[in-house]
Amino acid sequence: MQAYAIDAFGDPGTVRELPIPEPEEGRLRLRVAVAGLNPFDAAVLQGYLQGRMEHRFPLIPGMDAAGTVDALGDGVEGFALGDRVFGSVGKPFLGAGTVAEFVTVSAGTVTHTPLAMEDDVAAALPTAGVTGLLMADALALSNGKTVVAVGATGGVGGYFLQLAVERGASVVAVCRAENADYARSLGAADVIDYTAGDVVAAVRTRFPDGIDAVADMHGDAEEVAKLSELISAGGHVASAVGVADVEALAARSIEGTNVNGLVKTARLETLLGLVTAGTVVAPEIHPYPLADAGEALATIGSSHVRGKIVVRVES
Fold first, then answer.
1. Fewest CB within 10 A of the end CB: N or C in the chain?
2. 242: left (phi over 0), alpha (psi -120 to 50) or beta
3. What pLDDT sits at residue 304?
4. 0.90 cut: is pTM over it?
5. Do the Cβ atoms of 85 and 108 come closer than 8 Å?
6. Would you call 209 helix, strand, or coil by DSSP?
7. Radius of gyration of the chain from Cα atoms?
8. DSSP string of 255-312?
9. What is the pLDDT of residue 136?
């Protein structure tokens, strides 16, 4: 099969011929139509996850995909050859990813793709959508709550913003000025341009009585800590990139959560229900061909992507 892979951390990587994987017990093999990329994938290629998970080389990146069931491992139920499915790989190691013509995935981390859903949209949903869903849950959002969303127009941010609005919250999106209209199109009530000045000062000026929550999709620990000073006791902080200081926040009666966007079938189906109802729409999607997978991964590693990047594996 054709796949994009690296032989060492920091390598530019190449599209090359690699063996087609065989599905083990509880797994199914997909013929990949589209692979969805996340900032996590770029971090893996640079070696930032060394010591946290096993890496196998040549390393194929990618956690998310949409495609067609090509083979079934022992014990797999509810799926048949030819079914369109989407989800995440669900593996305890890195390197057998989705930027390839075939990938094996856990039956517990995928679900069926609705007939009307395009593969680009399905591949963009799993990790980012589930993380956004868990962020909204962690912040206990409801009618009248004000949440500041840092990194609101990236993959996770785009889903989180919509989910927060669906729960009745007023979202203040922190993003670049060029993305302000996009943030508002997803439901943001207000926008702060982080390139124009001090974000914390801007929030304090607009909300002198404080805010209820902070959703962090960017990863600036110092900024998140300062924003948390504007949250009243009983409020919440959630970070998708692990920078919430849970103990320090608890000392001020604020609940902090570092969200792990673990994809499971039930969570995908919850998201599908919201998509079907029209509550959540697909983010802005930027497709690349497999031949340009290296460029796609470099772009997502820049931390300045609006919406989602996907790699179309099938030509």
1. C
2. left
3. 87
4. yes
5. no
6. coil
7. 19
8. EEEE------HHHHHHHHHHHHTTSS----EEEEEGGGHHHHHHHHTTT--SSEEEEE
9. 97
